[in-house]
Amino acid sequence: MEKGKQIYEGKAKRIYATGDADVVWVEYKDDATAFNGLKKGTINNKGSLNNRISAVFFEMLESKGIPTHFIKLINDREMLVKHIDIIMVEVVMRNIAAGSLAKRLGLEEGTPLSRPVLEFYYKNDELGDPLINDYHALAINIATREQMDKMAELAFKINEILVDYMDKRDIILVDFKLEFGVFKGEVILGDEISPDTCRFWDKHTKEKLDKDRFRRDLGNVEEAYEEIYKRLTATAN
Prior knowledge:
Layout: E1 6-9, E2 13-17, E3 23-28, E4 31-34, E5 39-42, H1 46-63, E6 70-73, E7 78-82, E8 85-96, H2 99-105, E9 112-122, E10 131-132, H3 134-139, H4 145-167, E11 171-183, E12 186-189, E13 198-202, H5 212-215, H6 221-233
Antiparallel strand pairs: 1-2, 2-3, 3-7, 4-5, 6-7, 8-9, 8-11, 9-10, 11-12, 11-13
Helix pairs in contact: 1-6
C-alpha cells in the first residue's frame, strides 16, 4: 500500500490517503502544543515514540475486545488505520484530580476520586474544546444517543483495562482523553493513546511522565515519553 496525498494535518499528526478508501496513512509529528495551541514547541522524537506507544495500546485493547482503528505499524513514525468518521466529542476519563478538574472543583492535584469521572468536550478548536454534556451533544447534532451511550460504555471498559495494565508497570493512570469514530456503522476507538493524551505518574515517586512536563516547563520531556515506552515494552503481560 502506498502513501497518497495529504488530506489533513492536525496538531500532532498528518493524515494521507491510500489506494483503499477504507484505510488512511498516519504520520506522527514532533510538534507539541498546549493550552489550546497557545503554547507551541517541539519534543524531539515525540512522533516516533507516540506512534509506537499508541500501537502497543491499540493492540492490547484489541486483544481485550475493544474495537480500534489500528491496522498496523508501517515504521517508527507511521501507521495504517481505518478511515473513520470522527465523532466531534472528546471523551475524558478521570481517576485522580488533576489539571482542569482539580482547578474547577477546588481539589488538590493528586486527590483520588471515589469513582471514575466521565466527561465530554466539544471537539472544536475555535471554541477551545468546551466541556459539554449529553444534552448539548444531542441538541447540536454532533452525536446520536446511541453513539454517546456506546462511547461511554467503551470509555469505562478502556479505563478499567488501562488502569490495571499500567499498574502492573508501576504507572498510575491519572486521566486520559479518547476520540471515537464510526467505521461501517460501528463506533470504534480512534486517534492515539500516548503521553500526549494521558496523564501518567510513576506509582512510587508520583513523577509526571507525560505532556505535563512540556505544559509546565518541567524539563526531561523526551525522557518521560521514552520511559513510558520502555515500561510498556519491558513485559508482554
